[in-house]
Design goal:
This protein has a single domain, classed as Rossmann fold (3-Layer(aba) Sandwich). By secondary structure, the chain is α/β, with parallel strands linked by helices. 40% of the residues lie in helices and 19% in strands.
């Protein structure tokens, strides 16, 4: 069955690759981003691959932008089968929770954690049942792994995103909407950098699997490489 899948932050990197793989499998993908020019270019690139792709301008750090995007989807009578929250930032100044400007931590959480939650809250009425919500997280957000000593604000934001994932999985358990978090690994993207150990195709593999293949009853779990990992 063809699904309609919205991916935030998908005009490049892992988000774009997730859209490409899902679109190549025959699904309708809605790319979302905050740069209209890059978004249009990305939609056009997928169109050249005969992928059914649409674009939706949305800045997940801006409440009004999220509300406008939800209104636009509603006007176009789009129902979503899968929402993938991929949009995130990792700021190069992110070095030390005690010494960094506090605005850096607030901005990172506003985008990476609260942004995903706000998108879910606005788009929930448009998600079909059964439906899926997939939050792109990181092992940096794990409470069971050792602290890695890198980008602490980013890691804290992903810990909060994991907590949000667990809470929503519980709250939506009666609505036939599964909610999961995914660690894509350290991926060679503009965010991940050239030293990253994984290709973007591998990073996209698990969210794609959750979107179209994984059993619905896996809700409330954290995955890497299609295997459950500890929170």
């Amino acid at each position: 069955m063809t699904k309609t899948i919205l991916i935030t932050g998908s005009n490049r990197g892992i988000g774009f690759e997730i859209a490409r793989q899902l679109g190549s499998a025959g699904h309708h993908v809605i790319l979302s981003g905050r740069d209209s020019a890059h978004l249009n270019d990305s939609v056009s690139a997928l169109g050249k691959e005969k992928i059914n792709a649409s674009g939706l301008f949305m800045d997940v750090s801006n409440n009004s932008s999220i509300q406008r995007a939800a209104g636009e989807l509603n006007r176009m009578d789009f129902q979503i089968d899968v929402l993938i929250n991929n949009a995130a930032i990792l700021l190069k100044q992110d070095k030390n929770l005690l010494r960094d400007d506090f605005e850096l931590l607030e901005k990172t959480i506003r985008v990476n954690s609260f942004g995903a939650l706000k998108v879910i809250r606005e788009l929930l009425p448009l998600i079909n049942r059964p439906g899926r919500i997939i939050n792109i997280s990181s092992e940096g957000g794990s409470m069971s792994d050792p602290v890695g000593g890198w980008s602490p604000a980013y890691c804290v934001s992903k810990t909060l995103l994991n907590a949000i994932t667990r809470q929503l999985a519980d709250q939506l358990s009666g609505e036939n909407i599964s909610v999961n978090a995914v660690c894509p690994g350290w991926v060679k993207t503009r965010m991940g950098g050239k030293s990253a150990t994984r290709h973007v195709e591998k990073g996209a593999e698990t969210p794609v699997w959750l979107a179209i293949e994984a059993p619905q009853n896996l809700t409330g779990k954290f995955f890497r490489d299609k295997q459950q990992i500890e929170w």
